[in-house]
């Protein structure tokens, strides 16, 4: 599904990703953990195609295509979804309108007919259940005035509507209360399919109790310094990152 | 690294065609003889000719104002043709007699003058260069006592109404362009809604400038008698030409006790090319008077065209408890300049006004909001709320705000909020990550920004305005 090879990237002339290699197969969940500033969000943004980052080396293949050669919207239409660490507000544009525009953009790219507002409402109703939200949220402007937790939940709603093949969740669990965490995790699990994959960026092992990863990777200083099974997350919880970053530093 | 909001491309103006039609024009230039000639061509009563000549004499003593924040080369008023009308054999009895070439022109503009094909619920007065060529649904409106006709026809058929209200809101000598208009205005729309009548359909005037080197000087007068209600929409386009054309219109609204007038404009005059060559100079005086108690006047405008826009739809809140509203979206792209806003003059007690202005600047466009809120000594308990937001797309454009506030009664309250935002790269990226392309993303963000204004437009025009906004900014982001 996704093959990242020796990826390097800079922002504002500073090298942030220093050679990332990672393979994610269909049906898998990968967790990416690591200290603040280690490059987790940068990796997510680079995969989504944010113009502030410049890819300086390496390659990314997604479903056999050169991902780095695609426009951000083409990546989205091809099924790459990023749940932002900091979702953006769009005043005056209702959630319903935004979701339908996104949904139809994807359908159009697939050569399918656009869904009219009525049919789309039916579809939305189903998706709202998944995140345990009422319809009121649909007439509010996208993320405008939403609480931190509501913004995160809104990302999952968008994901539910767009049904991505590759979902990248950047700290979607941060700022969620215990109930909301469960709702979000259940939502993500419900959306898992054998032909889709998920990358979750998180600081907390508790999320991984709900969304059980096949692999856990530790990112430090723009490199993956350790990969392992789900027990690695537990070990990190106990020992922190220092032993890994030191080891990595010694190697470098 | 190129930012997606940096490069700007010119979008083709799709109404830029010219209709080849034989026209009756007067010689270039302005003097008393030209005015007499125009008046004679229109077979006007003596009072109107006198009014025109008085305005002309005032105008001769006036100087063109240069306080707006716009720049343009001097206008040669002797090089303009002040009257141009498509030639027709005789006055029109019905729509069937309208020149097919003209009907085709309006079809092409998306304005069908065939009553069968019209959206039911909208009556249209079509103004081509200097004259009205057709007014639809006149008979149906007449059943309700509503008068909706060209200004020329009103002068012929309802001289008493014209005489009573003409110049009652915008006097002939009000300002340089208003005086010029009073001297040479050629046609326009006239509306009268009788006491207690709610106009059964939307009324609309469509202005089309076709002939070269002509100015369009139309005059619109709308009178809503006691307890009457009307909603009126104005739309405009012009061919693409590389010379500038002057459009100096006057609109007067009179709302008597308990009356409501909603006046909406979707202005899409040719804006000139990406280097600022050509385009319409839109210097317009629009003013409404809430003459009676509890009357209400709402101006809603979406300004996307013109090389230069210079206008301040205003309301004089004379009647107690009257309400004035101004909702505006002004878009400038390429080299366009707009200096627009409103004046709310509170005279009566407990009068209220709301101003919501959304300025969008792209390319090298310059957008200024200029607003005056005046509370006169008798305006006890008067209130105003002003919200003035600017959005910048790219780095080469500008937004300016000039609010003037003059409060002469201590109980009056004025609230002003202003904001300037740059359309965020992060907002665009967020939309793109959800599958929208850059232009759809911009269009969506900008439409969201303008929502408070669009929701005041009549339904079908709101849709049109949204599309128009998309078109004006299309290609504004690379
Ligand atoms: N656009 C940018 N311009 C300059 N520096 C940037 C930019 N984006 C990120 N950085 C820097 O790159 C480094 C990695 O940032 P990133 O956001 O990827 O970290 P992170 O691992 O997601 O951290 P956190 O756990 O705090 O979310 C940080 O030092 C950050 O300041
Ligand atoms: Mg991060």
Helix content of chain B: 10-25%
Secondary-structure element series of chain A: EEEHEEHEEHHEHEHEHEEHH
Based on CA atoms alone, the radius of gyration of chain A comes out at 18 Å
Q: Structural class of the helices, strands and pairings of chain B?
A: alpha/beta
Shape field of chain B: globular
> Ranges of chain B with pLDDT <50 over ≥5 residues?
1-11, 116-120
Distance between the ends of chain A: 30 Å
Account of the 3D structure:
- The complex is a heterodimer of chains A (252) and B (478).
- In chain A, helix 5 (148-162) packs parallel to helix 6 (178-191).
- In chain A, the strands form 3 sheets. Chain A has a 6-stranded mixed sheet with strand order 6-9-10-3-11-12, with helices on both faces.
- Chain A has helices spanning 40-48, 72-77, 95-109, 117-130, 148-162, 178-191, 205-210, 231-239, 242-251, and strands at residues 2-11, 14-24, 29-33, 53-62, 65-66, 80-83, 90-94, 141-142, 166-170, 197-201, 215-220, 223-228.
- The two termini of chain A are 30 Å apart.
- By secondary structure, chain A is of the alpha/beta class.
- Chain A has 9 helices and 12 strands.
- The model of chain A has no long low-confidence stretch (mean pLDDT 92).
- In chain B, a hairpin with a 2-residue loop joins strand 3 and strand 4.
- Chain B is an alpha/beta fold and 478 residues long.
- The longest helix of chain B has 15 residues, at 46-60.
- In chain B, helix 5 crosses helix 6 (159-165) and helix 9 (438-449) packs across helix 11.
- Chain B has helices at residues 32-41, 46-60, 100-108, 138-143, 151-157, 159-165, 176-184, 425-433, 438-449, 451-454, 459-473, and strands at 23-25, 84-86, 122-128, 131-135, 147-150, 189-193, 202-208, 219-224, 229-237, 244-247, 250-255, 260-267, 279-290, 296-303, 308-311, 314-317, 323-332, 337-346, 352-361, 366-375, 383-392, 398-407, 413-422.
- The interface between A and B is medium-sized, with 32 and 27 residues.
- Magnesium ion binds at residues 40-41, 85, 170-171 of chain A.
